[in-house]
Amino acid sequence: MMKKCILIVVLLSLTFIWLMSGLVPRVYAATFTVTNTNDSGTDSLRWAITQANTNPGSDTIEFAIPGEGVQTISLASGLPEITDPVILDGLSQPGADCTSWPPTLLIELDGSAAGVGVFGLSITGGESTIRGLVIHSFSYSSVHLASNGNNTIACNYLGTDPTGTTALGNYHGVNIDDSPGNLIGGGTATSRNLVSGNGGVTVGSGVRIGGAASTGNQIEGNYIGTDSLGTTALGNTNCGVQIDGAPNNIIGGSEAGEGNVISGNGRQGICVTGSSATGTVIRGNYIGTDAGGTQALGNAYYGVHLDGAPNSVIGGTEPNERNLISGNGAAGVRILGSEATGTIIQGNYIGLQSNGQAALPNGDAGVVIEGATNNTIGGTASSAGNVISGNTFSAVSIYGSEAHGNVIVGNYLGTQANGTESLSNGWSGVYILEAPNNIVGGPEAGARNILSGNLYHGVFIGGSSATGNVVQGNHIGTGIDGTENLGNTVHGVFITTGASENQVGGPLEGEANLIANNGGDGVYVDWGTGNLISRNSILANSGLGIDLAPDGVTPNDPGDGDAGANDLQNFPVLNAVIISGGSTVIRGTLDSTPGTTFRLDVYYSAIQDPTDYGEGASYLGAYEVTTDAGGNAIFAAGFPLVLPEASYVTATATDPGNNTSEFGPNCVGPTGVFLVDFQAYEVSQGIQLEWSTATEIGNSGFNLYRATAPDGPRTMLNDDLIEAPEPGSEEGASYTWLDTRARPGVTNYYWLEAVFVDGATLEHGPVSAVLSRARIYLPLVNDGVGQ
Fold first, then answer.
1. Could you read off the pLDDT of 432-459 as tens digits, one per residue?
2. Who contacts 755 (Cβ-Cβ below 8 Å, separation ≥6)?
3. Domains along the chain?
4. Comparing C-alpha atoms, which of 365, 299, 373 is closest to residue 336?
5. What is residue 703's three-state secondary structure?
6. Could you tell me if 506 and 535 are in contact, meaning their C-beta atoms sit under 8 angstroms apart?
7. pTM for the structure as a whole
8. CA angle 185, 187, 193 (to 5 degrees)
9. Between 20 and 30 A from 720 (CA), which of 21, 313, 343, 576?
């Protein structure tokens, strides 16, 4: 009985479903075919769009218009808005083809008579595809995407005639208005759009993306602003691609074929505007060149212009992500405004041809930062650096007191992509004007910039607001190996017009710059104070290694009371280079501000500078001295390194305000007392002390001291100075001294103090020996002698 009931229920249910199926209409995808070029009526395009809108689901509109060649649909008014998903396929017209580029497109939509305020195609339903059409001469956009997104626009000519060689502009080529996830183009030539000639006498762009909801759109593989071959300018009046307040959109891509050619446009190649236009990614494009990357098809102003747009990415670390940004009328990239923060520019060629070997200049700098903060040009990772060379002005220019916190690392600025041959920018590698607290380079090897081969300076820092900038770890005037002669024509680093409190090098290992081969000075401070110049390797520059204006060596003045560049800080004067065991001792004097502690940086070179002042090829070390009430200090600074023979030693002085001096006069070393040996050992009469020197230059004699612990109180053994046998001799001498009063049964420690003719002293030791038992000898006199 139960089984019968169940069977009856099932049969009744099936009957109900069958009856209801006749009441609910089924949804079928339909194909509507356009067979004429009429503006309206059955089988016209207007009719087909209306039919597709009324048929739910994704439909297809195909073309089968009789006749040879291009079929032109001239519209007297706007077509219906596409409110339901559709594939509008111009490639279905017999003879049309997009399997190679340039394509054969045979369906043309002409809006020249359609009136004011008319789109070519307006899509609000989303999920639609437009392909194989020529759309031109509309007062608004050729394609308008609004509301629902995920549309694909591929293999169309938008703004030109069917040959792709004559401009017949719309207002915009494509306008994406609060619509997400649309794809304009694609990664193959079969998906490429030609978006050119738009804007007319107005300010229309090739592709415009606007509105907060317009996110996740991709612009890939298109020619924007050129003819169909990508060899001749056919510019859009305003920007090639314009983003207004729309976040997280992509122009180009990381895979081969996804990059666009964006060239020949009337203003910018790419313009991104507004603080809400965050997260724009620009990769793999040719911006300002032809499709081959060898000829200039410049956008009239900037290649890429970011106006208040934060957190953009231009380029990347993979080869396919590299943008070629060259040949533009103004700068390659401009970042403008305090809200334009967090942008990363890396892995690009800016100012070069695609081979990275020849120049294709932008009309201003490669990259300009104006009033923008915390942006990064380059990076420390492999391939993150840009090659920015061949530009009309500088590789990178930073302007304005609000332009701070920008970092320039890992780039080649003035060389070819190989980093070993020059490709000059017309001014400087980095140009900082009135901009504070920016960083050029860093202590990590990957942060090193190559700032070489430029027609003026490696680095320019100017203006009273240009404070706190740091230049460290770079090669300035040489290539990646540090051996190439790629000097900048004028100075390595030029600090001027009141720029103060900047840092070139630094006190820590890894912060040094290599500054070599430049046509002027290594570092020239023309005007400004508190500029620290420390630990750099400076050599083979045509001028001074460090020059404080006026030009040439600025003599010391007593008490250092003068003013000027870096307060015209006096330099140290070295008078002896002494080798002592495994160490080098540098003796000298400093005449400067009374009662002040100075940091002395000591350098040496294998080659004498023609001026006899510096340069400092290799860093020996640092030493602090404090001047007395008269402003004088005598020093003997020891360093754990034995200098090579015939080293030219020099030093700089830096005051507490970070004013660094010029290099002082060279002292050829080693000079002075060169201690070869100092030893102590037990003999029958006591403890025998012996020492010998290789030279006696500057030596008056010695004192000896004993203690029973390394840090214990010391007793002076000699009543009178143990005099050198021939003071000032370039020959060495041998000395002995017998300590008959050494304490038995303990270790006796001995120190040898060299006393120089100027009163300075230098200590050696300790050495030690044990006296095994007490001895008494008469008389208790010493037989120490010098031979």
1. 999 999 999 999 999 999 999 999 999 9
2. 699, 700, 701, 702, 703, 721, 761
3. 558-669 (2.60.40.10), 673-786 (2.60.40.10)
4. 373
5. strand
6. yes
7. 0.89
8. 25
9. 576
